[in-house]
Amino acid sequence: MSRGLFILFEGCDRSGKTTQSTRLVQALKDMGIKAKLVKFPDRTTAIGKMIDGYLTQKSQLSDQAIHLLFSANRWEAMNQMRADLESGITLVVDRYAFSGVAFSAAKRLDFKWCKSPDVGLIAPDRVFFMDIHPDDAAKRDGYGEEIYEKREFQLDVRAKFFSMMDKSWAIIDAMKDVDLIHRQILLLTKKALQAQEAEPVPIAKLWT
Ligand code: T5A
Ligand code: NA
Question: What is the domain partition of the chain in residue ranges?
């Protein structure tokens, strides 16, 4: 039995990551492919609750402390994610270490320092970058409620994402219709699954 794939959605706030990752998991399940949705931050754990308090501006933390909590929130999920991938489940992940680095580096924390706590995490096989200009994102429901949803900051975050892209990333125009984006992403995911079937690639680690 071949392992599952790690499919990641990244992008700026309100770009449609949750909408599309949810739809992709459903479509894969409908096709009889074992799939699971994973979301970061996972606000349900003890660490996740601290992150939620910070994001909703109920509590304050230094930039370094919140950065390390976001990373710890990924590390606490690693054993389960590895077990799932090895048992053939494809993981569709809503945000990951690239968000961690992009947001903290946009706060002017050192880029290399930002990457270091996430070194060794499981690497994604395919990344979909939901690209939207912050001015368009700001027009969507619920925008501006959390601490990072400010125009200049989001522009900087977007630039940081672009600096981390490699050939595993696909840039998706997040301004297109929801169904159209879904079909595009499903097609790319099917191709990635077929490629893995034809020529299996082992689970890789981040930033090595
Ligand atoms: N963060 C996160 C860090 O600083 N470090 C880290 O390590 C991590 C993991 C919370 C914050 O944490 C930061 C980044 C964030 O600022 P979150 O919990 O993922 O991260 O944030 P959420 O608020 O849940 O999600 P987002 O704001 O990122 O939104 P999504 O998931 O990109 O967008 P979605 O799908 O919820 O859609 C937003 C709205 O747009 C509509 C939807 O219906 C919804 O109303 N929409 C569309 N409208 C028109 N056309 C389309 N194609 C649309 N797609 C969606
Ligand atoms: Na989301």
Answer: 6-198
Q: How far is the CA of 1 from the centre of ligand 1 (A)?
A: 34
pLDDT in tens, the chain (208 residues): 789 999 999 998 999 999 999 999 999 999 999 999 999 999 999 999 999 999 999 999 999 999 999 999 999 999 999 999 999 999 999 999 999 999 999 999 999 999 999 999 999 999 999 999 999 998 998 777 777 778 889 999 999 999 999 999 999 999 999 999 999 999 999 999 999 999 999 999 999 8
Q: Which atom of ligand 1 is nearest to the CA of 149?
A: 16
**Ligand 1 atom with least separation from CA of 39:** 19
- Residue from 12, 15, 18 to probe ligand 1 pocket by mutation (most atoms less than 8 Å from CB): 18
Dihedral in degrees, nearest 10, Cα atoms 160, 163, 164, 170: 100
Contact 75, 82 (CB under 8 A): no
CATH class assigned to 6-198: alpha beta
* Burial zone of 166 (CB within 10 Å; 0-12 exposed, 13-18 middle, 19+ buried): exposed
